[in-house]
Amino acid sequence: MMKLKKVVLTSVLLLLNTPAFAAGHETNKMTDNQQRNEYFKQDYAKACAQVLQSDLALPATKEIAAQHEINVNIDSGYRMKMNESGVGYLQLAITEWGEKLVLFSNKNMKIEIKDADITGADIVNLACEDEDKRITHVNTHEWGSYTMMLTAAPNSWVELAIVQEVSKG
Fold first, then answer.
1. Is the N or C terminus of the chain more exposed, i.e. has fewer CB atoms within 10 Å?
2. Alpha carbon distance 7, 12 (integer Å)
3. Are strands 100-106 and 87-94 parallel, antiparallel or unpaired?
4. Is the pTM of this model over 0.90?
């Protein structure tokens, strides 16, 4: 009976402390977002102000994307319609070793870039008036073509801004 009381007491204490741990985690996450937004303020301001090319059809295959390669040396923005499968591709032309990019995209869109490092993802946007965007940081290792896969709800409209990260050092 004594063992059962200890188990019950331990369980109650754990349950009481769980919200405190969860709230502490959320507070730390928000602090991390605030710090990132402050540190990358210049990059984020560029992404917020990026004019979007409108009403583009997102390439449905890697082969089609390769025919419309995007030069990341020029900041760019796109408003695109997802296809029926909800998967589309963009090909990025990387001309420098160790290129660092900042991507602003819809919350509901997932971004993957083969052979690149995602160094920060799902960062809360505190920089723009439209805080409905999420921020992703990408590092590439060498020059060449990188294929970006975008996933979102089929036939939905998505937005993506691509800017170069400004060196802080």
1. C
2. 9
3. unpaired
4. no
- The phi and psi torsions of 160 (rounded to 5 degrees) equal -145, 125
Taking the C-alpha atoms of residue 115 and residue 119, their distance in angstroms, rounded to an integer, is 13
Tokens encoding 70: 């995007």
> Which is more confident, 34 or 151?
151
Strand bridging mode 70-71 / 87-94? parallel
- CA distances to 4, 100, 112, 114, 128 from 95, in Å: 66, 11, 19, 16, 29
With H, G, I as helix, E, B as strand and everything else as coil, classify residue 165. coil
CB atoms within 10 A of CB 108: 12
Residues 124-144: tens digit of each pLDDT: 989 888 788 899 999 998 999
Does residue 161 contact residue 50 with C-beta atoms inside 8 Å? yes
Residue 120, SS3 per DSSP = strand
